[in-house]
UniProtKB/TrEMBL annotation:
Species of the source: Glycomyces endophyticus
Keyword Protein biosynthesis (UniProt): no
Assigned keywords, A-Z: Membrane, Transmembrane, Transmembrane helix
The protein's name: DUF2530 domain-containing protein
Ranges annotated as biased composition (Low complexity): 1-21
Residue ranges that the Swiss-Prot or TrEMBL entry lists as coiled coil: none
Annotated InterPro entries: DUF2530
Length: 109
C-alpha cells in the first residue's frame, strides 16, 4: 500500500502508466494489415459430405450380412444418420449462403 492510501505503487518517473503505451514501446514488429475474409460458399462442401455418407450407406447395404457377422451392423445406422444430418446441414448452408451472397446473378444480358 502506498503512502497516499491507494493500493497502486507510485509511478516511476519516465514510465508509462498506460499499458497500451508500454506495449507499443516494446513491440518489435510493425503493424500488418488484416487479411481479407475468405468468401466461400459452404453448400457444395456440405453436399459433398452428404454424398460421401450416401455412398457409405449404399456400401453398408451391399455388405449387410458380412457386417452383421462381424458385429458391425450399426455401421448402416451410422451412415443413415450421416445422410440425414448431412441433408439438414446442406439445407442450412444453402440458406446461409443465400443470406451471405444474395441471389445469384441471372445470365440475362
Amino acid at each position: 500500500m502506498s503512502t497516499d492510501g491507494s493500493s497502486q505503487p507510485p509511478a516511476a518517473s519516465g514510465s508509462s502508466a498506460n499499458p497500451r503505451a508500454a506495449y507499443h514501446r516494446v513491440k518489435k514488429t510493425p503493424e500488418l494489415p488484416a487479411a481479407d475474409a475468405v468468401r466461400l460458399r459452404m453448400t457444395p462442401i456440405a453436399a459433398a459430405g452428404t454424398l460421401v455418407w450416401t455412398v457409405a450407406l449404399v456400401l453398408t447395404q451391399f455388405f449387410r450380412d458380412d457386417l452383421a457377422a462381424s458385429g458391425r451392423e450399426w455401421w448402416g445406422a451410422c451412415a443413415l444418420t450421416g445422410v440425414i444430418v448431412g441433408l439438414l446441414g446442406t439445407a442450412a448452408m444453402a440458406v446461409a449462403d443465400k443470406r451471405h451472397f444474395g441471389k445469384a446473378p441471372r445470365g440475362d444480358a
